[in-house]
């Protein structure tokens, strides 16, 4: 699971996922370890400086900052009804995580973790059409924002073991991400074809109702994270055998 974190970084950065073994200075946790969860907790925290800077010899790029070339976000409900596209979405501070809880149960094959982050500044080229709360949003340009900390995220992964050519792999079936982000500060340029007054009023409203806006868009952000994680898990656990991720003690 340590390697999951490491490889997550590779894959979320949209680099081709790799399946090499990890270098020696990465701690490993044995499936038979009676303190498996402690081992994982230490491992996640130990590996932070490496993943932050990247580990060139095994092809891991730095994830500070993290850049997503493009993605779409859309919602259609009472609170929010919009389509949003981002290009070169850049977010900073993800390396500054602290693992609060971690739990892997080899019997149920369920993994869960709770992480804390500080404020996360981000910026992106964007296009938006629709509304959030009752604030109409039309525009295209550049947006910068800061998700205010402390931010908490929990990730829960469920799966089963499958056997391919006599080798066991973990097959992820469900991923649930829960994010707790209380507030944000945002500045969007290019709203309403650059109309200064509409742009000013809209930015004012976005910051005035930022807590409610954060609440309204959190489900979309959680879904985005779930899709990214699932893509990564399929690629990672589909190519690295289960007992390479969690070595047996006498092996
Ligand atoms: C986002 O949506 C646009 C138009 O709806 C589409 O052309 C584009 O392929 C989508 N991009 C992604 C990454 O899904
Ligand atoms: C969302 O916006 C579209 C386009 O303006 C509209 O047709 C639809 O009824 C809206 N849905 C909700 C739930 O407000
Ligand atoms: C995204 O960034 C890359 C590299 O800096 C650049 O070549 C590309 O044009 C950018 N894309 C957009 C849509 O701005
Ligand atoms: C990382 O966390 C430390 C301590 O919590 C904080 O002082 C620092 O500003 C944070 N850095 C970033 C980039 O968020
Ligand atoms: C993994 O599980 C999904 C269902 O959740 C299933 O469709 C798929 O075939 C499984 N993959 C393998 C390799 O068995």
From TrEMBL:
Give me the Gene Ontology terms describing cellular component.
extracellular space
Kindly state which keywords UniProt assigns to this record, in alphabetical order: Biological rhythms, Signal
GO BP term (any one): circadian rhythm
**Keyword Signal part of the UniProt annotation:** yes
Q: Name one Pfam family in it.
A: JHBP
The secretion signal range is 1-17
Q: Which domain of life is it from?
A: Eukaryota
Family, similarity comment:
Belongs to the TO family.
Q: What is this protein called?
A: Uncharacterized protein
Q: Which organism is it from?
A: Ignelater luminosus (Cucubano)
């Amino acid at each position: 699971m340590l390697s999951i974190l490491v490889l997550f970084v590779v894959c979320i950065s949209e680099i081709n996922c790799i399946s090499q073994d990890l270098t020696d200075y990465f701690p490993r946790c044995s499936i038979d370890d009676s303190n498996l969860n402690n081992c994982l907790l230490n491992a996640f925290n130990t590996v932070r400086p490496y993943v932050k800077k990247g580990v060139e010899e095994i092809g891991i790029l730095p994830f500070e900052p993290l850049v997503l070339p493009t993605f779409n976000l859309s919602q259609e409900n009472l609170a929010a009804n919009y389509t949003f596209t981002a290009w070169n979405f850049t977010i900073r501070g993800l390396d500054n995580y602290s693992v609060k809880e971690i739990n892997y149960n080899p019997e149920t094959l369920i993994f869960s973790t709770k992480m804390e982050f500080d404020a996360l500044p981000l910026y992106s080229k964007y296009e938006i059409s629709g509304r959030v709360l009752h604030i109409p949003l039309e525009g295209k340009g550049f947006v910068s924002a800061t998700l205010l900390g402390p931010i908490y995220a929990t990730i829960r992964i469920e799966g089963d073991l499958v056997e391919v050519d006599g080798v066991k792999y973990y097959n992820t079936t469900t991923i649930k991400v829960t994010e707790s982000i209380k507030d944000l500060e945002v500045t969007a340029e290019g709203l309403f074809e650059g109309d200064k007054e509409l742009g000013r009023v809209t930015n004012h409203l976005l910051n005035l109702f930022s807590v409610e806006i954060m609440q309204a868009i959190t489900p979309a952000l959680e879904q985005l994270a779930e899709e990214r994680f699932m893509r990564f898990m399929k690629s990672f656990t589909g190519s690295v055998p289960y007992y390479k991720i969690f070595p047996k003690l006498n092996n």
